[in-house]
UniProtKB/TrEMBL annotation:
Homodimer. Belongs to the heat shock protein 90 family. This is Chaperone protein HtpG. Residues 1-342 are annotated as: A. HAMAP family: HSP90. The gene is htpG. GO terms for molecular function: ATP binding; ATP hydrolysis activity; ATP-dependent protein folding chaperone; unfolded protein binding. Pfam families: HATPase_c_3, HSP90. PANTHER family: HEAT SHOCK PROTEIN 90 FAMILY MEMBER. Keywords: ATP-binding, Chaperone, Cytoplasm, Nucleotide-binding, Stress response. It comes from Paenibacillus agilis. Its main location: cytoplasm. Molecular chaperone. Has ATPase activity. It comes from the Bacteria. The keyword Lipid biosynthesis does not apply.
Length: 559
């Protein structure tokens, strides 16, 4: 049987596509600018292959202009242009990407800079415009052509006048409706902001005529005049592509503030240029302060994700494990598989590799902070230590190996936060366990009778004052082969403790103990004599897994 081609109702398809693949209208500008940048890149590749074409970077730019009264937005580029056939094939055939074809035909292997690949971005213009006109003159051609369309109705092509090589795209911006406001796409400041947001790192200048006011020269009564000035809106060279040695701490801090990652100063930055199994650049920041909503459900972790300098996602959560959710910053990679809207990613190997890589870099940075800049680490721990402890506890302790070396607890002997490693290194030979005591505060724990015996023995005790502490430690179980032991547990592994109560003592006070147990019935399991008490007459102790503090926390939790 002969195979038949599918037919498509192209009008409907176009409408469906335009209105369903993009979640935000403003990205039409990103798409058109990306196309213009591709067109200039093609000039560059042409010049490499053809000696008669000269590529001088300063001659290439993209210009955005508005005519508010006529509701016209124009994008001009000095790129390679399109012939009549190319207008027909590239703008008349949905899902045909001239840019992808260009890369294949010219066997461009390092053509990562060329952004286009799906052949749909151009049509996003119809989200904001009811008429789109493209006038283009291709390189090596004497004639120019005009392509025009009102969207679903189809398009027309006719001869046109254009002096220079390149493309000019004119959008007639839609009228406002009751639900939708389109005026914003005629507003200079709004347009500038959209360009900054998505296209800041396009490698060619994006120019705009910007209106400002200035005092009239010679005027005495502060008279102002309006004037327009051409400005380059984008910063072009992204900081993450620059050489680390060229950049100062201040450069990174400026970037942090410009990007509004936080209003504080970053505590530390990490600049990664990875060139291995996966190629990417990243600039990450460890903030100094806990964001006000950090420990709430509202907080959303994630890094900005760029594909080739073009913003794809504002917050890509998959790039950060929860326990490093405080990290801010961005990742740029040319190796990502994007989906058609460029707003989402296929969950691919690349992304997983980058995430894993980033996790290790953050851990490495924190470890060196701990080792070399303890004061800074203390500050960091103050803000985000709790998150690390939650990290140890969550996912059934799966991440304890990543995190246990980063934990700190208050030490009874050092009177400051210490790591597990430091504790174990100081342990006398006869000490069997890592001792800890839980309580509301350092002061409260210090006064508690349970700590006496261990302290008198000269052993260090870690004070757990955070709800999560003991739960996290239960996940770790042991550190460098030393098990953790709560000072209030029955068997402390200390000699004086071994034969806790002699039958004699027990018998001597039998009546007293029975009377006490009776009074406290339902509150304690039994009343016993103990050798662990020094200056206190009595203390509570526990048997089994759950300690008193853990029970308190569990009871306080909502069911
Ligand atoms: P993509 O960019 O993914 O290829 P688009 O729908 O954005 O898809 O554009 C379709 C094609 O139209 C491009 O591949 C390119 O060949 C052509 N094109 C669009 N804009 C321009 C332009 N400003 N200059 C030259 N060619 C362009
Ligand atoms: Mg495109």
């Amino acid at each position: 049987m002969a195979k038949k081609q599918f037919k498509a109702e192209s009008k409907r398809l176009l409408e469906m596509m335009i209105n369903s693949i993009y979640t935000q209208r403003e990205i039409f500008l990103r798409e058109l600018i990306s196309n213009a940048s591709d067109a200039i890149d093609k000039m560059y590749y042409k010049a490499l292959a053809d000696e008669s074409v000269v590529f001088e970077k300063e001659n290439y730019y993209i210009k955005v202009s508005v005519d508010k009264d006529k509701r016209i937005l124009t994008l001009t580029d000095t790129g390679i242009g399109m012939t009549k056939e190319e207008l027909e094939n590239n703008l008349g055939v949905i899902a045909k990407s001239g840019s992808l074809a260009f890369k294949t035909e010219n066997e461009i292997k390092d053509g990562h800079n060329i952004i286009g690949q799906f052949g749909v971005g151009f049509y996003s213009a119809f989200m904001v415009a009811d008429v789109v006109t493209v006038v283009s003159k291709a390189i090596g051609s004497e004639e120019a052509f005009k392509w025009e369309s009102k969207g679903a109705d189809g398009y027309s092509i006719a001869a046109a006048e254009k002096a220079t090589v390149g493309t000019e795209i004119t959008l007639r911006i839609k009228e406002n409706t009751e639900e939708d406001n389109y005026d914003e796409y005629l507003d200079e400041y709004r347009l500038k902001a959209i360009i900054k947001k998505y296209s800041d790192f396009i490698r060619y200048p994006i120019k705009m005529d910007v209106t400002s006011h200035r005092p009239v020269e010679g005027s005495e009564d502060n008279e102002l005049e309006t004037y327009t000035e051409e400005q380059t809106v984008n910063s072009m060279v992204p900081i993450w592509r620059k050489n680390r040695s060229e950049l100062t701490t201040e450069d990174y801090e400026n970037f942090y503030n410009e990007k509004r990652y936080g209003f504080d100063k970053p505590l530390k930055h990490i600049h990664i240029s990875a060139d291995g199994a996966v190629v990417y650049n990243a600039i990450l920041f460890i903030p100094e302060n806990t964001p006000f909503d950090y420990y709430t459900k509202e907080y959303e972790k994630g890094l900005e994700l760029y594909s080739n300098g073009v913003l794809i996602m504002n917050k890509c959560g998959d790039l950060l494990p929860d326990y490093f959710g405080f990290v801010k910053g961005m990742v740029d990679s040319e190796d990502l598989s994007l989906n058609i809207s460029r707003e989402m990613l296929q969950h691919d190997r690349q992304l997983t590799l980058i995430a894993k890589n980033i996790k290790n870099k953050i851990k490495g940075q924190l470890q060196s902070l701990l080792k070399d800049e303890r004061e800074q680490y203390d500050k960091f721990y103050q803000a985000f230590g709790r998150q690390l402890k939650y990290g140890v506890y969550s996912d059934y302790g799966m991440n304890k190996d990543v995190l246990q070396d980063l934990l700190m607890f208050h030490s009874s002997t050092e009177k400051k936060l210490v790591t597990l490693d430091e504790y174990v290194a100081r342990m006398p030979e006869d000490q069997k366990y890592i001792y800890y005591a839980s309580g509301e505060s350092v002061e409260r724990i210090e006064k508690s009778p349970q700590t006496e015996l261990v302290s008198d023995k000269g052993y260090e005790i870690l004070y757990f004052t955070d709800d999560i502490d003991e739960f996290a430690i239960k996940m770790i179980m042991s550190y460098k082969e030393k098990e953790f032991k709560n000072v209030s547990s029955g068997d402390l592994g200390i000699e004086a403790d071994e034969n806790e109560t002699s039958a004699e003592e027990e018998n001597d006070n039998k009546d007293l103990f029975e009377a006490m147990a009776g009074l406290l019935s339902g509150k304690v399991k039994s009343v016993k004599a103990s050798k662990r008490l020094k200056s206190h007459p009595v203390c509570l102790s526990t048997e089994g897994e759950l300690t008193i503090e853990m029970e308190k926390i569990l009871k306080a939790m909502p069911n």
